[in-house]
Amino acid sequence: MMKFRKPKNYLEGSRRLANAVKKGITDDLVVQCPKCKKSLENSELVGRLNVCIYCGHHFRQNARQRLNFICDKGSFAELYGEMVSQNILSFPEYDKKLANAKLSSAEKDAVICGTCTINGVKSAIFVMEPYFMMGSMGVVVGEKIASLFELATQKQLPVVGFTVSGGARMQEGILSLMQMAKISGAVKQHSDAGQLYICVLTDPTTGGVTASFAMQADVTIAEPNALIGFAGPRVIEQTIRRRLPDGFQQASFILEKGFTDDIIERKDQKNYITKLLKLHNYGNQN
Amino acid sequence: MTAYEKVTAARAKGRATAVDYIAEIFDDFLEMHGDKRFADDKSVVAGIASLQGLPVTVIGIEKGRNIKERSLRNSGSAHPEGYRKALRQMKLAEKFNRPVICFVDTPGAYCGIGAEERGQGQAIAENLTEMMTLKTPIISIVIGEGGSGGALALSVADEVWMLENAIYSVISPEGCASILWKDASRAKDASECLKLTAEDLYKFRVIERIIAENDYKFLHIKTELLKTITKNKALSQAELLNNRYMRFRKIGETTQ
Ligand SMILES: [Zn+2]
Q1: What is the reported pLDDT for B29?
Q2: Fewer CB atoms inside 10 A, N or C side of chain A?
Q3: Domain total of chain B
């Protein structure tokens, strides 16, 4: 097998940073921006939604941080939070992986679902968690997101989703693949009921998530410098046996090829989503 | 047979491919080319045929039976145009009230520059939502390899059947082994872990039927197709679509 240069944008981001942010450590932790190479103090990132103050590079952000920014203060009510993955296939090392993922993310699985208000507009929301097995989709992720869409259909709520995922969860075999169809069915019912689904693609969104609910929204927006694609860059490079051009599968590439409606910076997302919700007549009644 | 022996059998040269099934089971097959958007993806064969007098839409992912065909068919790794061609034919099937029968045999959706540029993920995603509410019966049969999203893109059906030695998996055993042990040559071990045989999938209620691989398999499939289509045609549209949704909705639910 040929050796390939590691693609620039693959799996960058710092777990150390995320954990520190989570624990509220704001002292001397320093990270280097992968884009402009400048050193950033952790405290500088936290106050700025994990965006580089020099070049605007968007670092990964954990799900709770996103919820804090998007949902109105105190409005988020979590749903299905008790669900935990089981090692149904007795897959080697999966139990250990799950335990580690719980530790490094402080979450029970790779997505958080609930209801909230966004500038006063009631919505259903799901946010995937990069620090739980890179947002991998297993039975629990499928069950939670499908249930959320069903609830939103029933309660006539829009759904706002944030994706980050390496794809289907290999350790749950065919059952994880089937979650793509399960969620797609729930998305379609919600859509056929005339409800709005907005999806924000964040870094990275790939595999089975791209090939299902990440690409099924009425309005799809991407975060700057997010990697978005079906196959991961390493797999493509191994298949075609050459290097990928710079910027391949980056948000700007996805926009150029016509697969996202726009690219919206993190700081502007809440206002953008609010405008969209209101333009679809949510929050106007009463 | 071990899981890996099944993997080997599912991929074996000389195994019947989609075009063989189409030729043996149907009459008057008229092939329809192209997605009417970009190109004709030869990894996917689609058209209209007669199933013992009943007009049906037939779609197959074709690997090719020899080196020349495999090159033409990209060994059954479809581009977005293949899935869009399939969807176009399914929409026509809905319009003219024809049942849809899919034959699945693919190592997976193609991973390449053009495929990404033209929205491989979007193409598969659209098939999943559209098939879920297609107002006509759909039956999918995994005849060889059911490779991940590329297989699922033709398998959102009322029933999914598998040949006895077919496999259906979220990832190839080689891909799994290289992630798990950084060693693709341990595909044999990975095959066991993934639970990808027809028996495994039947046990997980992901498929409804296992087709024995003997001299009568084509005839057997023809008979069972007619029976199942008759059964599903008797349902109301709402029942048909609700059953299809619940078929997938239930998967994994019992494990909570
Ligand atoms: Zn920077």
Answers
A1: 98
A2: C
A3: 1
CATH number belonging to the domain at A61-279, selected among 3.90.226.10, 3.40.50.720, 3.30.420.480, 1.20.120.140: 3.90.226.10
CA distance A179 to A139: 6
CA of A26 from ligand 1 middle (Å) equals 19
Tokens of B14: 């000389």
Confidence at residue A143, expressed as pLDDT on a 0 to 100 scale: 97
| A185 touching chain B per CB within 8 A | yes
DSSP for B66-128, please give it.
SHHHHHHTGGG---HHHHHHHHHHHHHHHHTT--EEEEEEES-S--SHHHHHTTHHHHHHHHH
Per-residue confidence (pLDDT) for residue A92, from 0 to 100: 93
User: Residue B11: what pLDDT?
Assistant: 97
Summary mean pLDDT of chain A: 90
Task: Give me A264's structure tokens.
Answer: 């919206």
Q: What is the DSSP letter of A27?
A: S
The model carries a pTM of: 0.94
pLDDT of residue A43: 82
Contacts of residue A132, defined as CB under 8 A and 6 or more positions apart, other chains included, come to A101, A102, A104, A105, A107, A109, A110
Chain A residue numbers touching B7 (CB-CB < 8 A): none
Q: Six-digit token pair at B44?
A: 């996917």
What is the distance in A from the centroid of ligand 1 to the CA of A15? 17
CB B171 within 8 A of CB B210: no
- Residue B164, min C-alpha distance to chain A (Å): 17
Query: Which range of residues forms the domain containing residue B161?
Result: 3-242
Half-sphere exposure of B251 (CA within 13 A, CB side): 31
pLDDT at B131 over 80: yes
- Kindly compute the dihedral angle of the four CA atoms of residues B78, B95, A211, A185, in this order, to the nearest 10 degrees: -150
What is the C-alpha separation between B61 and B84, in angstroms, rounded? Answer: 13
**CATH number, domain with residue B125:** 3.90.226.10
- Looking at the DSSP assignment, which residues form a beta bridge with residue B167? B145, B197
CB contact under 8 A, B111 and A236: yes
Q: Does ipTM surpass 0.90 in this model?
A: yes
Report pLDDT for A5: 37
